[in-house]
Known about the structure:
Number of strands: 3
Strand content: 5-15%
Bound molecules: zinc ion
Amino acid sequence: MNKKTRLTRKKNPARLRCPYCGSPVQLRSADGIYQNNSDNAMLYVCQRYPACDAYVRAHPGTNQPMGDLANGDLRALRCQAHRSFDQLHQSGRMSRDAAYRWLSARLSLPLDATHIGSMGEYYCRQVIEACETLGMRSRRIAPQSRSEASGGVSA
Ligand SMILES: [Zn+2]
């Protein structure tokens, strides 16, 4: 039997281990994991999946993992953090670049490490809190509509 062709890559994602249970991690299609995998996404999935619900998406083309494997709780937190963050630039309040610079300063992280997709729970919560605080402040400065002002705050 021939030896398998060795792949030469800078990183070797095949050596990834699940951060939750230590099992090896497999690169596989997201079919059966994503409800809709029309993008043909590839995932690094814990070998114990679904008993261990940990995976991370691979960058299309390069198959490099986008971050550390995340379980359901962390994935939900990352989604929530991304939603909060995206509102900052999608609302036109600041550009996407400016939003990343703001977040990086706010979290005291280097800009090139300010990726929600690779953040753990602690940083995700920091992102959500920071974005909510900023959002609340901006509502007070620039009220978009008066329909919310049903309370009895007298000016
Ligand atoms: Zn695992």
